[in-house]
Write a structure and sequence with these properties.
alpha/beta; eight-stranded parallel sheet; binds uridine-diphosphate-N-acetylglucosamine; UDP N-Acetylglucosamine Acyltransferase, domain 1; Spore Coat Polysaccharide Biosynthesis Protein SpsA, Chain A; binds calcium ion; 14-stranded parallel sheet
Length: about 425
């Protein structure tokens, strides 16, 4: 689509009360700005993000995800305000959509609606019972006349319940003609993007309101707004999985980040967290388990298990208090209380309760490799680097420090001693 998009993200976000720039606060695993850019990219090949406060930090964090967007630093000193933010920005298309960077819930389909009108300006409007904090939009005969910021509004203008949600479509000629004419003679001494409306209106240009959903267009200005937005984002994510056939038990208690994939007949129980780039296929994640940046296929996890990044579980069962990290488990059973890190464990192998892969010597991490059909007794330590071949039995309580060849039994124990009658003598 021939549309340019400018995302405003230069503001300080004072009401957030944080040293982290407002737009980098995250919702369901990703920053607010990430969502704006992601949706923008679906409808535009020309995206500019306007930055100022902690610009380097914001830019670096976005470059991790997006390579083909432009960043511009606002001349904040001389031209503060949302109007100042869009001055001198080169855009390649005739229509320019401007978004606030603090509206993480706006989706592609809603943005498309702005491009469907032929008006010179289309601006987002919400009717609010309590319009407090927003710019008021004065509408007559279904055309926008002007926008007044709360701090500049007269007492009658303050009663207006139509507010500016902060998304605008401008024809390019409007920007080139009227941006140089903006003034900062207002309560905040800023250049307001919203003043473009009145300037264009006075010259007879057509300005249409587009009524948008309050829930999606609400700006996030405080930590309370952030948590409200999180609740909405979470229910979107979980509803969409349930529609695809995933069972989610007590969805209000589970947390699923936005890039997670769940496929097939999967069950996600209460209290589960699925984080980062996790993929769950035909699996059962039992209550209060955490899976992060890992894949779980035809497997069951938990209750109360933790799968840490870079793990792949296939046809495997891990039970309560089992922690897996950077490990590939194929056809494995580890029912209770184990740490399996930097390991590769093969089909038919049973890991007894209390088994630990000792992967760290205080300086480096080492790998553990366990073959097929290995029986590992309870309370075993495997001191890595180590390789256990197929068909091995390891007795309970063993500390394994050398590679073990196929077919072996391994036991290392202090010989057991029995002193008959000791108890009664001792306490006599
Ligand atoms: C703005 C609108 C207001 C509207 C509200 C909707 C103006 C003058 N007012 O007010 O009518 O109801 O949004 O949420 O536009 N920003 C910059 N550079 C700046 C100032 C702000 O890039 O110099 C960015 C911010 O980072 C933010 C966005 O613009 O993403 C909106 O700024 P904010 O200060 O939140 O505007 P509001 O006062 O809420
Ligand atoms: Ca705002």
């Amino acid at each position: 689509m021939s549309l340019s998009i400018i995302i405003l993200a230069a503001g300080k976000g004072t009401r957030m009360k944080s040293t982290l720039p407002k737009v980098l606060h995250s919702i369901s695993g990703f920053s607010m700005l990430y969502y704006s850019i992601k949706e923008a990219k679906k409808i535009s090949d020309d995206i500019t993000v306007v930055l100022f406060h902690q610009a380097d930090l914001v830019q670096d964090s976005m470059k991790e995800y997006f390579s083909d967007i432009k960043f511009v630093i606002q001349d904040y000193k001389n031209y503060p305000g949302t109007g100042g933010a869009i001055m001198n920005i080169e855009t390649s298309h005739d229509k320019v959509l401007v978004l606030n960077g603090d509206m993480p819930l706006v989706e592609e389909e809603e943005l498309r609606l702005f491009t469907q009108s032929d008006s010179d300006i289309v601006m987002s409007v919400i009717n609010l019972e309590n319009p407090d904090g927003y710019g008021r939009v004065i509408i007559e005969d279904d055309e926008v006349q002007r926008v007044v910021e709360q701090k500049d509004a007269s007492s009658s203008e303050l009663l207006t319940k139509s507010v500016n949600a902060g998304v605008y479509l401008f024809k390019k000629h409007i920007l080139s003609t009227y941006l140089p004419k903006l003034s900062n003679a207002n309560a905040q001494g800023e250049y307001y993007i919203t003043d473009l409306v009145e300037l264009a209106k006075n010259d007879g240009f057509k300005i249409s309101p587009l009524y948008v959903k309050e829930e999606n267009f609400k700006g996030v200005n405080s930590k309370k707004d952030l948590s409200d937005a999180e609740v909405i984002m979470q229910s979107r994510i979980k509803n969409s999985f349930m529609e695809q056939g995933v069972i989610i038990r007590l969805p209000d208690t589970t947390y699923i980040e936005s890039e997670v994939i769940i496929e097939g007949e999967s069950i996600i129980e209460n209290g589960v967290s699925l984080l980062g780039n996790t993929k769950i296929v035909n699996s059962h994640i039992k209550s209060n388990s955490i899976v992060e940046d890992s894949q779980v296929v035809d497997s069951s996890v938990g209750p109360m298990a933790r799968v840490r990044p870079a793990s792949l579980l296939t046809n495997t069962h891990i039970g309560n208090f089992v922690e897996v990290k950077k490990s590939t488990l194929t056809g494995v059973k580890a029912g209770h209380l184990s740490y399996l890190g930097d390991s590769e464990i093969d089909d038919g192998t049973n890991i007894g309760a209390g088994t630990i892969t000792c992967n760290y010597d205080g300086k480096n991490k080492y790998k553990t490799k366990i073959g097929k059909n290995v029986f590992i007794g309870s309370d075993t330590q495997l001191v890595a680097p180590i390789a256990i071949a197929d068909d091995v039995i390891i007795g309970a309580g063993t500390t394994v420090t050398k590679d073990i060849e196929s077919g072996s039994l391994v036991v290392s124990r202090v010989p057991m001693k029995i002193v008959k009658g000791f108890f009664r003598k001792f306490f006599a």
